[in-house]
Prior knowledge:
Blueprint: H1 2-12, E1 15-21, E2 31-38, E3 43-49, E4 52-57, E5 60-65, E6 73-77, E7 87-91, E8 94-98, E9 104-108, E10 116-121
Antiparallel strand pairs: 1-2, 3-4, 4-5, 5-6, 7-8, 8-9, 9-10
Amino acid sequence: MRTIKYLTQFLITSFLLLPIKSPVTAASQETSWQAIGQVGGMVGAVYAQEERVFLGVGQRLVILDVSDPASPREIGATRPLAGPLEGIAVSQDLVFIANGGGGLQVVDFADLAHPRVLGAWTPPATPRTWY
């Protein structure tokens, strides 16, 4: 029973990965992995705006319609972003997402069903203390 529980948790929070060939060169045939989707994940950030709720679910921004609070429904989601979503702020049709080492992502949600990433800012380095 414990094995089934852990397997279920793994499957719910797994990423869909696809091998992507890097640009072909005569000397190299490297394969790298790129996230193409995500199923489930922890909710790390929430922002409510009228009849919409923006959730950071794992590495994706999910937009819910909560006009009927008894039956929220998903109306849009981004592709997986650079890291888990830790904070969300909304201004007009833009969502600003703090996602850890991935920095800041700016998402346009004018088309609620198809939110798109407009840009990103990544901090130059992670602060470290040297002794």
